[in-house]
Specification:
- The chain is α+β, with helices and mostly antiparallel strands.
- The radius of gyration is 15 Å and the shape is globular.
- Helices cover 18% and strands 27% of the residues.
- Strands 3-6-5-4 form a four-stranded mixed β-sheet, covered by helices on one side. It has a two-stranded antiparallel ribbon with strand order 1-2.
Amino acid sequence: MINGAHVVIYSSDAAADRDFFRDVLGLPSVDAGRGWLIFQAPPTEIAVHPTEAVHSHELMLMCDDLTATVAELEAKGVEFTRPVQELAWGLLTGLRLPGGGDLALYEPRHPLAHG
């Protein structure tokens, strides 16, 4: 049966984004060969949202304290792409990857599916 998930992030500068996940976010990784890093993800949840637009998928990183996490990442030179929003389900912002992509970062205020 299903025993995990593999998330793919497409990037115009994959090497810089891999360095970001390793050096800035501090995610453990393995080298799958020739420097192709595969990162260990933190506990993960899957939510299915309705849409009338073209189907797409989004990776959202989660944290316990958004204010502290933003401050820690800004001290490492991370650029944030949108101001923190307070939503019914949590606090949300976005951060810029070196390859130009945008990742959502949020502090959930809803029950968590993982322990």
